[in-house]
Amino acid sequence: MSFLDGKMHSKWTRLTFCLLFLLPLLYPFLLKPGEQLYSDHLGKFILGESVGRNGFLSGNLVLPSRDLDPEGNYCPTECIRIGEELISPFPAALGYVYAVFLPWSGIVGVYIAVAVLILLSFVFLSILWDWDPIYLGVLVLASPFLVNGYFFPDVGIASFFFIGGSFLFLRSGPSSSWFRFISSGFICASSAWFRIESIVFPLTFIFFLSISKFSNTEERKKILGYSVGFLVGVGLLLGIQYVLYGHPLGPRFSFNQPTMFLLPWKKWKIYAGLLIANPNRIGFFGYTPGFLIVLFFFIYYILFKKNPLKRSVTLEISNRDLFVYSGLVAFLALVVSAPNDGIIDFGSRYLHLSLPAFAGMFLILLENIGEKFRKSAKIVLYTILLYSVYISYSYTQILGKYGRKTTKLNAIYLEQKPDLVVVQIRTYSQILGKYFFQTPSVWLLREGHIKKFFSKNSPNQFKKILFVQTKASIAQSLNESDPFLENKYYESITQALGPDFKKVWSENKEDVLLFSMERKK
Question: Per the UniProt record, which residue ranges are transmembrane (predicted)?
Fold first, then answer.
């Protein structure tokens, strides 16, 4: 079906698609790349810059504070020590993508490239779903697929590879070449270079294809080719990561490992935050509650209405529907094994690749509503989706506001021109932004860390030190008229630096206390 036929005959439908396709290209203006250098985003920028400075030969983090902290005990970004190297837990492949773009386009080029990949993902999915505007509208406007894909480049790139490989497979005919089937599996496996959990999705897809279609001679060739390509791709990834990091699943797995293997009944807080909400964040179904209805319907549908395990109905199930079923089963598997890192803002990166399957299952739900209740059920479902559209809008607004806030913090760094920046919480290394490589920065969480760090590094080598203290630790005892009164963190700083340093500037912000200590001449 072409773009001009079938469901695309209405000019309003065409206009709807054009607007949806334009949204990814608008996001670089809504969430400006230069304002996104904080927290994980800053860590990915640091990784990319390090790869470039290492001549693409190593992911060893190039930190200005390395001479002050050779062991990496006070690393201002998330890092793991492997041998003599400090390695980022973020995907090395993402660092290479950043390293390619940063020299000639800066951080802007990275986000524009990701926006284009998301647009191509929309095109692939629209073709697979016969240009159904409801499908794309639900995915783009009522789920975090667009904003998470853009805001977290590793998520956007991983989803492009997975969707691109799936598109190549699902659009293949029995007469297609072995190379096409193998390539589709290999491309899907390539998504794991950016998000390791994406391995689960092709695995469940292969499982559903095998139990329902393997007896079909024509389908068997496709399944075998896809499986071979996937296994080659995953084998290459696991082998390289084992050689480089000593673990086949790489540094991110090692970083998250402590919470992944907790028993399920000990992970209720993780599940609640991941799926519904915690005090600061909205989870997967908190963002799109309509998908909770979809999940319940899927369980009923798969068990009682069209069970792919029953040989008698296997020929009635299309590969596209099997792709949807496998995506929801992969979702359930990932939820059970979710690490603490799975809890993120407004829907989950960790469960991102299941979103196309949820949107597909939503259409199956609409098709199976009885005539008697069709109108009222659709009104209820679309009303719930409108809430998610509002959340998508609010999410973008919040992220944009936070990005502008970090830019103001960057300005403070430029005004103070310190010789060292000390942050109490790693997130606040964002004060350096794109200037991260100009000034050493260390993460000193507790009073004991301050004492230990400055006992190994003489304060006298610094003219001015800028401190960023989180107010969360002192909120109850904070004296608003004098935030330095009975402030144990500040007291430990003055003791460690000695009488030669005095406070020359401070600013009491909503969530942080910033102050500069300058050495007397």
Answer: 96-129, 150-172, 192-211, 223-245, 284-302, 322-338, 350-367, 379-396
